[in-house]
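Q: Structure for this?
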Amino acid sequence: MILPKPHFGDDGDKLHEECGVFGVLGANEAAAVCALGLHALQHRGQEAVGITSFNGTAFTSRRGLGHVAENFSTGESLAELRGSMAAGHVRYSTTGGSDLRNVQPLYADLASGGFAVAHNGNISNATALRKELVKRGAIFHSSSDTEVIIHLVATSRYPTLLDRFVDALRMVEGAYSLICMTSQGMIACRDPLGIRPLVMGKIGDAVVFASETVALDVVGADFARQIDPGEMVEVDLDGNIRSHRPFGAPAPRPCIFEHVYFSRPDSVFNDRSVYESRKHIGIELAKERPVEADLVVPVPDSGVPAAIGYSQQSGIPFELGIIRSHYVGRTFIQPSDGARNASVKRKHNANRALVEGKRIVLIDDSIVRGTTSLKIIEMMRDAGAREVHFRVASPPTGYGCYYGVDTPERSKLLAGRMDVDAMCSFIKADSLAFVSIDGLYRAVGLAARDNACPQYCDACFTGDYPTPLTDLAGRRDAETQLPLPVAEAIA
Amino acid sequence: MILPKPHFGDDGDKLHEECGVFGVLGANEAAAVCALGLHALQHRGQEAVGITSFNGTAFTSRRGLGHVAENFSTGESLAELRGSMAAGHVRYSTTGGSDLRNVQPLYADLASGGFAVAHNGNISNATALRKELVKRGAIFHSSSDTEVIIHLVATSRYPTLLDRFVDALRMVEGAYSLICMTSQGMIACRDPLGIRPLVMGKIGDAVVFASETVALDVVGADFARQIDPGEMVEVDLDGNIRSHRPFGAPAPRPCIFEHVYFSRPDSVFNDRSVYESRKHIGIELAKERPVEADLVVPVPDSGVPAAIGYSQQSGIPFELGIIRSHYVGRTFIQPSDGARNASVKRKHNANRALVEGKRIVLIDDSIVRGTTSLKIIEMMRDAGAREVHFRVASPPTGYGCYYGVDTPERSKLLAGRMDVDAMCSFIKADSLAFVSIDGLYRAVGLAARDNACPQYCDACFTGDYPTPLTDLAGRRDAETQLPLPVAEAIA
Amino acid sequence: MILPKPHFGDDGDKLHEECGVFGVLGANEAAAVCALGLHALQHRGQEAVGITSFNGTAFTSRRGLGHVAENFSTGESLAELRGSMAAGHVRYSTTGGSDLRNVQPLYADLASGGFAVAHNGNISNATALRKELVKRGAIFHSSSDTEVIIHLVATSRYPTLLDRFVDALRMVEGAYSLICMTSQGMIACRDPLGIRPLVMGKIGDAVVFASETVALDVVGADFARQIDPGEMVEVDLDGNIRSHRPFGAPAPRPCIFEHVYFSRPDSVFNDRSVYESRKHIGIELAKERPVEADLVVPVPDSGVPAAIGYSQQSGIPFELGIIRSHYVGRTFIQPSDGARNASVKRKHNANRALVEGKRIVLIDDSIVRGTTSLKIIEMMRDAGAREVHFRVASPPTGYGCYYGVDTPERSKLLAGRMDVDAMCSFIKADSLAFVSIDGLYRAVGLAARDNACPQYCDACFTGDYPTPLTDLAGRRDAETQLPLPVAEAIA
Amino acid sequence: MILPKPHFGDDGDKLHEECGVFGVLGANEAAAVCALGLHALQHRGQEAVGITSFNGTAFTSRRGLGHVAENFSTGESLAELRGSMAAGHVRYSTTGGSDLRNVQPLYADLASGGFAVAHNGNISNATALRKELVKRGAIFHSSSDTEVIIHLVATSRYPTLLDRFVDALRMVEGAYSLICMTSQGMIACRDPLGIRPLVMGKIGDAVVFASETVALDVVGADFARQIDPGEMVEVDLDGNIRSHRPFGAPAPRPCIFEHVYFSRPDSVFNDRSVYESRKHIGIELAKERPVEADLVVPVPDSGVPAAIGYSQQSGIPFELGIIRSHYVGRTFIQPSDGARNASVKRKHNANRALVEGKRIVLIDDSIVRGTTSLKIIEMMRDAGAREVHFRVASPPTGYGCYYGVDTPERSKLLAGRMDVDAMCSFIKADSLAFVSIDGLYRAVGLAARDNACPQYCDACFTGDYPTPLTDLAGRRDAETQLPLPVAEAIA
């Protein structure tokens, strides 16, 4: 069994949300609903997909590498997944290699019966917990951090499954939005800080949980509410819903990067339209960092909403100066006679007739390594652009994420190793500017960042991590990874 | 060998260009250049792909169903295609079923040596010619109309291959842009009316031919010029170029729908930027068919340039009221509990937070069957839009195309069976309007349509077919297919 | 991932050995040696195959459904399995479904390091042990009985791995020949009764373990000795061998059916040539059950050695009256116009020119359900045989095996539901006879069966099971499965 | 599409019949009957298989690489092949590479309608004919010699299909047994010398044609008669049979190697049981070439019938001194530490316990390159055999076959480059002997070879080719390939 490598159109020059989760209870053909919902969350993970269903008696799982449509679009593929309760998972790369054993939902036969779990997030003390569990005789089947939760539940001494589940979660640190299934029903919960998203909806009497509201739209569910940080929602097989809050009420810290890039623009996150947030980042950016130019050009597609905002605020016309191919996929063999930047051009081609001789404001959502930004600016110049000003719809991304987002090491982050002027030289722009951290908070509807008690997790911009990072601290090379003091980072 | 069905994101509610062709002579790893060029033409045909290369001694072909990237992105797949000359083809469905034997380039060992041909277009008397050839003992290997050309060449009595080729083309009617290879070099030619596009470029000393300029951009070639209608360009293995015009000089009739939809917006067709044309259609549309509204919303992605034009002309803000998924693919099983229009929502979801309570101008490039338009308007209303006005960036598409475009029968074309008022009711819009035929000609840079001698082929709008349609006339059911008189159609 | 069903040429009308194991330590390319050895054991299991290797640092596994050659014949498939120690497993169906997770060697990361195990046999109290382990928090990843052993090792409190392994085995009952690997070396052991075979050999300094001597021949190893019942042989990475006998010295009970059918005729089992045993069964059968006839015809291939013996003893010529196809595989669609018994004829065709008008003695190794015997006799009569006498080279198979052999329920065994006369009528033979239980013991070189203390496990013939059958006793339907009193069975 | 290489158990050290053909008309599910019949002919060709059926209106084909069971054992694979007439083909390698286009039946749409042909044999002037046809404008789609026949039919000027077919066959030279289908029915014919076999049978009213009688047995057909050399049997769709003999009545020369090795032992060829022939070769061999020994051991499986004959004639016991694996297939990676001859041992293992210390007479059907014979003799000696005498059930194979059998060049045939003594040294036998050419003719039931007018084609033994070899003569290297004078060859 040779498994294909995942493929992205961005050459690793984007941060990647690592997972999306979806669950439904009380629907006919729950697995088909689940497949549709996961497809709507495909942007959160393209490497692998799994669905587990429960038919009243038994759990059945099906997993595969690749996209939802490649694995779950046929009747045959869904025929074995019977029942009115199902949960599924899409993943990018997670902790753990690209092995089918790591594809979620993970499933175990506990003494209390079947237990399936789909997880979005990252347990930041998983290595330490795993070591301890193995010492006590636990046998791990995957390299996934999620399996730690299952073993903690299995070995907990509390009498009920719910108690054992709470007992387990008390031991884990980090970010998690979980959808679990037992033979009694479904449990959805979110870590105490609510770092990763999770929402609830209804299709008639059926209950739906999903990482984003867009999945509710696509399956025809009405949005009910988000799961609160630290909340545990239990739904039994009759559809009765009970809410538990076993972790008290710490101040939430949802991930602000969901607004910047991860979530679909048609989703509502933390009670605010993501599209609205992105357009307003563009507006803030135009206010903070104006420039004289002929055209506002988005780097498609993620730069489009901010570019619309920038254009509306600045009055400079919004135009498609870069055309994106719909057929991005695997990398091609680069012929030795090929033009420079062919790998970028397969995805993004300059609209030469439009940009020739013009002064361009390019808008992108973020800069990670900077290599793609450099190539796109070169491409614009090759196509005859007179000036290229780069505006970024987020602050400099200078710190790694340990909460379920795939980030390069700090030393590979452009903003982790140079200041804005140096970055501007590196990407060869005529000017470069980022929205300020307070501009970003204004764009998501707040007055400013509350530095004493930030309303969001913005550690990738500030280095201000809201939880301990046990496994990280345990690593030899930890010092090179450890964040700078917050004060320095924000300054 | 079970071959997958092709899959489109449009439920058959778009016209489809049936082919793209690409050739290169004089490049190292010509097949790799070819793969990259075909990838840039993927929008012209997604069902199958083939590349034939010549290594100075022998021709080698490789064909596959699916996308270029699925078949030609690995070194292994290209390793067998050695040599400095190669030509390739992407196709949607052509005349002929979805059998690997129909995948081009077609190849034959003639008495004069190997002969490979890649064809974009459609031979409208292929059936009649084939019947005659079989009577004389020819054995056809495919059901492709292109094979007729090869048999005509094989059985021609003229002494040179070029003469035999001209002799063959004199017998065919219809549209063709051809890239041929022999052991002597490459021949590119375009039918006397130049219905389908074909351009030439250079990478250093290497010569490149392609359906669109975007393929030149992506492989790093400089655009040289388009192949003229009726021109035959011969390049020998040393790169010497000779041009022939064996068909005299009839007035050209390039396909105007290349501007409307087929070509990539970053291509230049008939010496005009396609993006510019589309934006100007939006401008014309705003002038001809204004409406009071809050937002201009494109149906992504094909409606975007016209929507930008409409917005700039009307002053109504351009906004992404519909979000397109990047992960469109196979159809999913529709769960019985699912919302209405889930099949549309997988691809296009309403940006509910934006459109709620608003008056919307929706801009799309064309209406074919109208079923998708109806679903999108329903989706906008479900998301709370107060009014939905539909503006179409082409005239009503009332006639089938017989020149290499997949069109439904006339009775399935919405504009083939009802007038604009009835169409408006059918799609449940608050208002519906199309750009006029003269508005379209203005948008592509002309003063108006010259009805005596139209500058483009616009038969899909007017029924004014520039060539005889021999095979069509020969069919039993021809009368139901035959075009209306031109006068009536334009009125 | 759709997994093919296993396919056998016998329509389920043979008993199937469920597994073969092979291990090698100290060889270059240990995995390649292992693949070759497993190929020689392919007759012991055709459904799935796995190899695990250790490169001094890490364990790597590769598993697949189907034959060894389908999974391990390419360099690519073996390239990842580096190192000088490897163990592998072929299996028919085992306890546990046809899921890759059940394919052995099973592997676990224990607190002491990696632990891999390949198992031939069946743990007859696995269900009871598993239930207890799950209650204590163990999470099982397969449905294999073998995984019980790993969890018992993981949770044992003894200080060394060897002690924990012995501790684990003390809790299991049934049949097991095990090859285990740790980062310290290899452990091979056989259950106290030695029900399933296991031998040791040497290739130079490399140590080899295998289910049968034929695997030693094929890899070029010299036979050293069999592993004794209850013996545990430990080999460290330097090749030092230590033998342990932690289970005392119970009288051995190796499986006599290895002589009858399971082992390859070119293997030596329990210090006796299997071919010799089979030929002598034929000799005993000719003495006990003579018949006047023209030809001795084996049912190929398993009946051949006994037929040679019968022919030599009786003087009736040995002839190939049935020709076996080499291309047996999947079942074909039976055309409605086809002849009767086409499914048998695909594998076995009558040699009509030879058998026409003749009196035939057919020799087969055993009768399980009897359906194939019936069809073969019909086929011989259709081909013109005048008389068909059936002689069976084993006693009636009246009881199920719980030691790693796939047997139908007793009610499906022909000898489980009727006496010899009724069986003769059922298969429509002119006469039917089986070798006696004492004849069988004589054929394997003993004077007779020692009823007080039988020298072999012959439970399938006698119902005399040498171990408790805990799981079986725990089943509802146990009474229908339970053996008859031995006295009655032997009589 | 990556096609697997064929795999054989003999390391190329056998001659291979290149094809088997099967056709049926008048049966329900004709394609399923055809699949079953082809499966019975699998030994005649393992590389590829195809079936074409006719449903009264249209022809449908399905082709695949590999075995019949891999391609035609499922209902799905046969569902598309509807109708009551079908013909199929198995092939080893033919003239033409391993491309699906070369897999037969070949099919063409002629002016008279569909025409399908399955061919066993080889056209020895195909290259010359093809060159001429291409010159006249024919386009070939395969590299198969069989396609020449179709083009000759397509371009013949005779009025009826049957006349055109005869006209075509008059131009070809060599060996052919053909099964053709048109929309009018089936035509089976055999070249004037009847080199390759072809028989006719009946299942009720359905007519069956096949290469061998074993295929009739397996599909439940009664043997009617063989098709005579030079006969053309026409069956219309109502089942009416007409026989034509357009080629006069030359003396037949069927291939004697069908008796030696190609045909299944349970087939009847040229009115004689193949098993009987082989056993009698053994008898002749024992008479001509006796030896004192303890055991007669066949090289399985092809040597078994002759070994039985040798044993019966000599009185030396027949024993299985070599055990053949049922799981032969792809070649394995040879581990560097492996024993010598592991590649042979995977297929054939010495029965050490039996042969140790014994004097062995090994019986094989033929010697081609001799490499396998050498390895088997080494293996017997490694296993302790005291003496190894090699007896071959055919005369020395010194000449290539140009009639549809895959033979090495003469210089690679052991008997093509050395005499019997040298061969004996090469294979390291204690003695080596072949049956004489007259002994072989006696074994097939004749008094002796009629040297003036041989009753069989025995060119591989004698170099006496019964037809001109036009293509061979046209080759540069012809002199090294050309046969020796017959006199010398037979002497």
